[in-house]
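dumping these here so i dont lose them again. two proteins, back to back, each one seq then structure tokens. dont judge the mess
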Amino acid sequence: MGIAGQRPWSPDLSPRATRCARLPTTQHVRVSFAPAKTTRPGKIVMKKTDTIYLVSNGDFRDSACETCWPMQDDTLKQVRKAFKKLGYKTETVTKYDAKRKHGFVTKQCEGAEIFSKIDPKAPVVIVLSCWAYAHHVCGPLQAHEGPKLLLGNFDGTWPGLVALLNHAGTLERLHVKHSRLWTDSFLKDDYFMEKLGDWCAKGDIKHSTKHLTDAEKAKISPAATKFGKELAEDIKTNRRIMGQLDPGCMGMLNAVMDPAHLGKIGMPIEYLNQSDLMAEMELVSDEEAQKHLNWLVKKGTWFDWGTDQYTDLVHGQVLEQMKIYSAACRLVERFGLCAIGIPYQLGLVRCTAATDLVEGMLNNIDRPAVKDPTTKQVVKKGKAIPHFNEGDMGSGVPQLLMHDIYERKGMPTETTLHDVRWGREWEDKYVWVFLISGGAPPAHYGGWKNTNVYRQPAMYFPKGGGTCSGVSKPGVITWARCYEQFGELGMDVGTGEVLDLPEAEVQDRLDRTTPVWPIANVHIPGYDRNEMMATHMSNHITMGYGDILEELIATCRHLGIKTRVAGDAGKALKK
């Protein structure tokens, strides 16, 4: 994911640029920290004379970092003021670099160098105000002993909150204890200041988890229990092979799962390669690609055509996307996949058009037919092919489970993941903005006639390609997220409602985030801002239409996945 920007990314491929150059020594100084006094195991007391070190983690791409630096600089100032009010000193160890025009960490080797110059027992804060690659700092943090705080702003345009959730899920995946905190107003936010004070005093923050219900304590109907048992047995017997291309995209290590865990529940991984997708694209004719595009046009899909390939959506970009679509379908057939995840960045971003329109097509039942060149049979005829955006296996698992449940119940099977991008109150309800660059199926908007295809923002997508955009229709949804937490497979689930908001409200939400991406305005009773930010295990959330919560819980139980039910839905099942 990312925010919209103006300047296209042009990678520097010189030998100098492809190595991780040592950072200027002026950016980092050897810092020291008096060892924390321990009053009892697990409790750390920071002294007012100690220094708290601030680290700015960012994107891999300098163009994105340059665009985001003014907001990060302002965020750092707000963070310093907050600590100062509490009586603590801070030091920003990632300095502004005039040549790069920003002060972000952009590679893991830079993060490693930074932490090599910080006392391993020092308290550190990862300050987040934009999309950032978690592995830049989460890898080095594995060996850091001091208190660790992820601190993100809560803003749609500058989505530090999305990066925070990514970093938190990644650190849990890596078995690293940490704290998380978020705010949209810093000193004016009483909850933020109270929790920040707790971290300074104890080296840890405890958020309420009363909104979570252990699924083992949930009362499930006998019919749902029987359903879940039968589906789980079928999955374990017949297997559901998950195709994942080049996992680890964009530093989302929470998207990478232990194949031992997935194989045990009957969902083994087929590791695939982006280069194989490119090779398969070469075998797709221009004629076949054009037929797919013609199909979309006849269905009423609207394309925002232009003439300048560097800023506009042009015909050649979409033809490339249609070839990706055929190639992906062929890979599904060749390897017998039940779901597939294509992480567009970083490799494919330099090679071909964006995959986002393709992902929406795959996730949709109503889509162009693709024949396997060997068997001459249509691949998954009349069915959606679950595609997990950005190769995120934490979404792929619930998408596949939900797809199978919907299919067995005779319900529409389309699913997608979204970024937990932002949210605010609307008519006494907290309404989340779920937004993603790709993956959302047109069925969620009411069909292809309600689908718009815009060029992806040039800052992140130099080779262009179209989105698969629309406003998700009102209705009840089931949502989920699979994750690994300290070596254990887990699943968070719940129900919610996509609301039909006034056009002006929808447009304002789009304008505050990324207007060319698909949006779902979702209310999850009992899972508002502080609840989700405190415990959600990823920057992503998976959703599908219709209430299948009990069947999903029952299936997870019989597969051996530890499950939590979030919000009022969990409380209702305890009655």
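---- next one ----
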Amino acid sequence: MRLRISIIGLWLGTLLLAPLALGRDIAPLRPDADAPLDAVPIGKPGDFKDYFRIDRGARFELYGPGELVFYVRAFVPEEGPAPDTVWVTVSGVAELERTRWTLPVSPSPVSVYEDPRAGIPTGGERVEVDLPIGTHRLYLMAASDEGGPVHAVFYYDGPTEPLRAIQEPTERAAPERRSTGPSPWSLDVDFTLELIYDDNICRYSDENLAEFRSGDRPERYAIETEDDLVISTDLELELDNRHLFFDRRTRFRVGYTHWKYARNGIKDNEDINFRVRQYVTPANYFEFNYTYAPRSYIKELWDRPPFVSTSVDGVYKHFYISRNAFKLGYRFRLTPWAAFKVEGERVMRYYNRPFLENDLLEWNGEFNAYLDWRRLDFWIAYRYSDVSARGYDSVDETRLNSDNESDNSYERDTYRLRVTYRPRRSAYDPDEAGGGLLGTLSGLVKRAAAQIDRGLVAVDTYQFYSEIYFYRCFYTSPYPLWVDPLHVGRLDVQRQFRIGWRSRRIWRSLSLDAGWRYTLRTADAPAEVVGEDDPSEEKDYTGNRFWLAFEYDLH
């Protein structure tokens, strides 16, 4: 509801001569103290304006007649649901006590926060409040449908008397108890419980699976079932400081993940991850990652002890792996719709003592491109890996004098493409179709998109995504083919296809993630390798994985 009261004199002349002026910018006060709210610069690089957080409340004392104009923006997190609705209420003016503004919002393609927080603002939505003659003590409150911060910039076109704080008869309003501002530190805690069904937990080939089901060689298999239900729990703690280094944001994250197999406890595994992210601009940052994965079971593997005659049969033993990974990367945004990330990584994979010769030292270089186009996001990645095997399994050996007759070193090219679609929650009103065939087709496409959006929104969809993953792995063993038939000239190719669905917050900070992944790997050796020496009989496999995850933000 809008109420405008006209009076004669200076104020009438001012309002009539400049009806479109925004007036002077003003700062609201804290709800429980007399100090102004902290300013957060938002806008385009080089054109920032001070916005104030209003989802925790804000106060004004203004003198009418006049017009209060403010632009409202909601926070869009880097990972997680984006808000599409903000509600604003204003009390202190009788005519507005029962009024609530419902504002549709969407991520801004150009605006950013000047401080390096992990997210972007929505576009600004305008609200106008007309004040009659007199003194008005206003209280503003806002909320987004995703529960995140809401900021606004304020302008007032009215009398120029100095603003003064509203004195509250409480101890909190006393000067010695005034707020010194929020702490630069903040803590965010995320917990995820994921249920995963995997139909080939050891990545066995069809020949291995047939042998396992027959029960003819029990010494070769330590698992009880070829498939299993995995219960995965993940806990992440992230500590942020806005001004720790170079007056830019620093983020520390520690994560712990545990996989529990319902029927095959030998496959249980865990890993610990530590990450430091240092922003150098609001949108660009350096990042360091360290991951440690303690020993976990892979499968049974045949082994003959070192310096033992090849006439002696080997035995099958548990095959374990542990891993250390160090990664350094830099992410930079060139335009509002394009960001890139380059990474270098060192990975060290260690196996248990009977299989020391298989230890791998890996160098990785990776390039990522993140592209946004309307409601579609694209992630394109390429990684090159150079992996060297240890090649010996005794402290008295080197690669030159080892009696080891295999070398599992390789080079690998990995490609990845992910396309993410975010449905539109607000009313979809396609433009009227133009004339001719193109206009008719355009109208049909827009109406089909509207129906798809309505269906996805009906199940609280935040995003729907699909991903293609492909790698070529070429083994570089220097041995003759007859010595190392499992590796010489071998080419492994793996293809993965994944589709997933992620919900909006369905209850407080709880959201869901569900999906399916299909994997196909083939191992091809030189044409003359057949029979038992053919790596495809051991290394080819297919697998399906289905999951449902419950993600909860404890912040």
